[in-house]
Amino acid sequence: MRHLILGAFLLLLVSCAPRGDSEEGAGRTTVGMVFDVGGRGDKSFNDAAYHGLELSRDSLGVDIVYIEPTGEGADREAALRQLATDPDVSLVFGVGLLFSEDIAEIAEEFPEKRFACIDYLAPDGGRIPPNLSGIVFEDRKGSFLAGAIAGLVTRTSSVGFIGGMESSIIRRFEEGFAAGVKFVDPDIDVISGYIGMTGSAFTNPAKGKELALGQYARGVDIIYQAAGASGLGVVEAARKTGNLVIGTDRDQEDLAPGYVLTSMTKAIDRTVYATVEQALAGEFNGGRINVFGLDGRYTDYVYNDRNAGLIGAEVHEKIEEIREKLMAGELESE
Prior knowledge:
Elements: H1 2-16, E1 30-34, H2 45-60, E2 63-67, H3 76-84, E3 89-95, H4 100-109, E4 114-118, E5 132-137, H5 139-153, E6 158-165, H6 168-184, E7 189-196, H7 205-217, E8 222-226, H8 231-241, E9 244-249, E10 260-266, H9 268-280, E11 288-292, E12 299-301, H10 308-311, H11 313-328
Parallel strand pairs: 1-2, 1-3, 3-4, 4-5, 5-11, 6-7, 6-8, 8-9, 9-10
Antiparallel strand pairs: 10-12
Helix pairs in contact: 1-3, 2-9, 5-6, 5-11, 7-8
């Protein structure tokens, strides 16, 4: 029954997608996307991916369809299969590490289709299907930069980290952040916490706020959150207590102007766009891990006129020096 409901929902989405009429739309490419837990509106990971889908539609002329998750996203496999069996869909995105196993299996079943997984977690020693692009970012290095900023700006010598689901990828954020803090000042304390052990940990802003308030009460003045929609609670806690927060995945300054020190950004939108563009040009990079890192600023941090007063020109200059060393391999982010 759940598959039937999901199928009916997809048919509704497809019928509403801007395909054009039978003559103008003939031969057009359709790109599909299945969102991670939390769906659109998380002001972070999923919204960035959707923006890339919109850019592809508006600038490259493709048609788009998408599926929102239900609950903890247990229907990932069914959603991917629905898009894969749609004869009009030629490229399917899975948004998030939790898609990794399912999307690899579906890619094997549909070798004529192309697939891409954002934050793909490759199996140990496992084969990546030739029609699957595993997209990853240098999140450890980006988090290192976030930690260096926090270490240079903190006034209490105590900073915090709050992750969503405790997993290997989110631990990379924590480890990179702590390494960056300790690089600039080994005496700074780093307090860490996780919201949960399942996908729902990315959709619990109340818990995020609770953990953040606890850290701020212990003397932390800057928290780096990597928690999806749960991070909205961390941002609210920063606003409520007058402390600072570091956002993730995209620039989150607009959520709490004056309280967002910076954001560790992953240009998920540009990556989605680039992947669609490559597929249209017959240059799809399947069967491999594709890294979008500091080079080209696909992985980066935010410094602009809105947060320059919080970071300061001197700190920014130091962070750029650190960034150059990370790119040159002169500095390790672990």
